[in-house]
Specification:
By secondary structure, the protein is mainly α. The protein is built from 20 helices and 5 strands.
């Protein structure tokens, strides 16, 4: 009872402190057109005691609250309320109780309860041990000074806002997902859309993740990411990020770094993709394939039998000029640069190699396994068994340089050094 009361006092004092900050920065936040979303509706009306004469004079000098300010206050109020038991004002467990409640409500919106398969068996001990091992490994590598890599020792506040665009937030269930391209991210994005109900069909969220098209899954407007916080919350964005990182369940999925590179090459450069051809394939052909004037479109290039070889793609990654021009594309950018595992303490680390077991475990951990299921995998088109064949065309010295470039990902996520490839 004492702990509950102290927590409630903490919530009230924290809310009062935030309101005080809002008053201090009223002009900046209330008038900015770049911080907040276009106003939707004013926040709830709040009763206040009658102000004294001095307070009345002060209030008369202040401008009236703008719709944006009211919307902002409403967001803050909703965020605080999610940690209180509805109707009582008493604090409750923000993950277990609230998430369970949301899951039951969501289940009713999707389909009658009796048609759902709800998993009742306990999680196997080996799956829990697997997660403990993966999380412990992250902590050890991040703390190890003998494995230094860019950004390893910086704080969360040091991460530029533009580098937080892969962290998707679902406030309904208290989930944060860092997506890694070429690691089943399309299906996980579909699941995040279903859970957040950012897409409705006939007034209801879809039940089947595969009902959501690939274009919809990757449409940025469907996802609320950390890099969008600044526009909504302004100066309070970092504070709210940290609160959500502490309270929400955070997860990511990874795969063998070299196999991920092969998958990215096959999907974006070997197969015709107009956007990637213009941005990357033309550059690779000019620099490394003796093609000073490559075809202007991917169809013309395919007709001429031209596309970058895998070896040329690796040469492109190793060329210092590449990152001088622009950061690595997300499909081949290192996971530690996408998801910041040394600054964010992830609660669940999934591997594509064990995706079906890990996905079932995660959905039960999130208490949404009675709402959505991870789509059945039909096998990876790029498997680790074909890895040696792909890298056989790459010079040995280049492979060793490539390993150094991606070594942090190998070490952080427990993938063995590919000695059979590097030492042949």
């Amino acid at each position: 009872m004492g702990t509950s009361r102290m927590f409630r006092i903490f919530i009230v004092l924290g809310s009062a402190f935030m309101i005080l900050l809002i008053i201090l920065y009223w002009d900046d936040v209330g008038t900015s057109h770049s911080y907040l979303h276009t106003p939707i509706s004013p926040g709830p009306k709040m009763a206040h005691p009658a102000p004294g004469q001095h307070q009345q004079e002060k209030l008369q000098k202040q401008p009236p609250p703008t719709p944006r300010m009211l919307s902002f206050l409403s967001d803050i109020d909703a965020f605080v309320n999610q940690f209180l038991e509805p109707g009582t004002g008493e604090p409750t467990d923000p993950v277990l109780a609230e998430t369970s409640n949301q899951s039951e409500k969501a289940e009713e919106r999707y389909i009658p309860k009796q048609e759902w398969k709800v998993h009742q068996m306990p999680v196997a001990p080996e799956l829990r041990q697997r997660q403990e091992h993966r999380k412990r490994l992250l902590e050890e590598v991040c703390a190890n000074d003998s494995v230094l890599f860019p950004g390893q020792k910086r704080t969360f506040d040091d991460i530029p806002n533009k580098e937080l665009d892969h962290l998707i937030v679902d406030d309904r269930h208290g989930i944060i997902y860092c997506y890694v391209p070429k690691v089943a991210c399309s299906n996980w994005k579909r699941i995040m859309i279903i859970l957040s109900e950012s897409l409705l069909h006939d007034g209801l969220p879809p039940r089947d993740p595969l009902f959501i098209s690939n274009d919809q899954a990757h449409n940025s407007s469907m996802h609320f990411t950390f890099n969008k916080f600044w526009k909504r919350y302004g100066k309070f964005s970092r504070h709210l990020m940290k609160v959500k990182l502490k309270k929400y369940t955070k997860f990511l999925f990874v795969r063998d770094p070299f196999v991920r590179l092969v998958s990215a090459y096959r999907d974006k450069l070997e197969v015709g993709n107009e956007d990637f051809y213009r941005k990357f394939a033309q550059v690779i052909l000019r620099r490394y394939a003796n093609q000073p004037t490559p075809p202007s479109s991917v169809d013309e290039a395919r007709a001429a039998g031209l596309h970058p070889s895998f070896s040329q793609f690796i040469q492109y990654l190793l060329d210092p000029q590449t990152e001088m021009d622009m950061p690595f594309n997300e499909h081949w950018r290192q996971v530690y640069r996408l998801c910041h595992p040394c600054q964010i303490q992830y609660d669940f680390v999934g591997h594509l190699e064990t995706v079906e077991e890990d996905a079932a475990h995660l959905l039960r951990l999130l208490r949404v396994d009675n709402v959505v299921e991870f789509p059945t995998s039909h096998g990876n088109t790029t498997s680790s068994s074909s890895e040696a064949q792909w890298f056989s065309t790459v010079p040995r010295e280049s492979l060793r340089e490539l390993y150094k470039l991606y070594e942090p990902d190998f070490r952080l996520f427990g993938y063995d050094r590919p000695d059979s490839i590097l030492n042949e």
